Amino acid sequence: MWGKLVLVRLVSSITCLWLLFMAAANAHEVFPSIADVEQKNGVLQVDIRLSIESVVADVDLSKVSDTNESPNAAVYDELRALEPAALEQRFRDIWPEMAQQITIVTELGRAELALKSVEISEVGNIELVRSSRLRFDAELPANSQNVQIGWSAKYGALVVRQVGVENPYDGYLENGQLSDPIKLSGGSGKGALATFLRYTAVGFDHILPKGLDHVLFVLGLFFLSARLRPLVWQVTAFTAAHTVTLALSTLGYVSVSPAIVEPIIALSIVYVAIENVISDRLMTWRPLVIFLFGLLHGLGFAGVLGEFGLPETAYLSALIGFNVGVELGQLTVIAIAFALVGYWFGRKSWYRARISIPGSLLIALVGGYWFLERTVL
Known about the structure:
Blueprint: H1 2-24, E1 33-40, E2 43-50, H2 52-56, H3 73-80, H4 84-100, E3 102-106, E4 109-110, E5 112-120, E6 132-139, E7 146-151, E8 158-162, E9 170-173, E10 182-183, H5 192-207, H6 212-224, H7 228-250, H8 258-278, H9 286-308, H10 315-345, H11 351-375
Parallel strand pairs: 1-8
Antiparallel strand pairs: 1-2, 2-6, 3-4, 3-7, 5-6, 7-10, 8-9
Helix pairs in contact: 1-11, 5-10, 6-7, 6-8, 6-10, 6-11, 7-9, 8-9, 8-11
């Protein structure tokens, strides 16, 4: 008995430290940059959407999943509040250095880069990533047939999308990876299976390790009861709902600003956690409420998927793959929670008092902090 109590306290302490660590961190999640490339008259025109602040601040995105983890986080945060013109000048000053870190090479040699334009959005909510656009031309050696694209690992992952040709290339490059040879005339597009697998990995990655808010919501569902039936009802409602809005959003039928969606997602975390404290069983209305919250989480997933874009030639495979990846991530969270807590203590008379309620209160605390951070802090 004494040994079990020690284990319970150890698990609870680790959980507390983890949740408090998450609460202390701002939601400065790292997303991949997106490069649209098109050949015109021997010139490869490159249009990249990226976080210019991370480049100017010299944040090594290959080593962090959240910019707050970088030793240059303070500089990065200052740049987020900088007016567009001032930030653009700071970027132009370091462009020659960045250009040396970008690789665009054909079978006949390396291309020379020429910066064309920089577009930076106005300062908004500095807790949200400010998207900027960088356009440059790459002068290709004459008679080039294929091109490979990549950049330094410190700039993070890069999504490369070919436009203006049939069956275009669409690839996700890990930190520092060089693309496969891309046919400039088109025909390098991946098949449906390869696209499905790639976007499955993207969906899973958005839950583990990057989707801390979604992880907390799923843990809130778990803490109501470690028994299978209540959990199945809740997860089914949540899955059905976010599948609907994810599909509608990516098809362009629904669009809601992240400034609205993200605070409500934080409130959904607070709600499920507080209801765990108030009630010890699955109330009839809870699946419906979770379904409504699931609609909002689907909009959050769609915002992330929008950062990647969906390939036109394998749209359905990419959409299904992303959703499957999200579900696998959520099931993994539940499996880990059950293995660490539910299996050992779920049927104990003291489970609710010593684990479920304290854990739910901590989740509510983190969700409340995130709500304030996304609205007034």
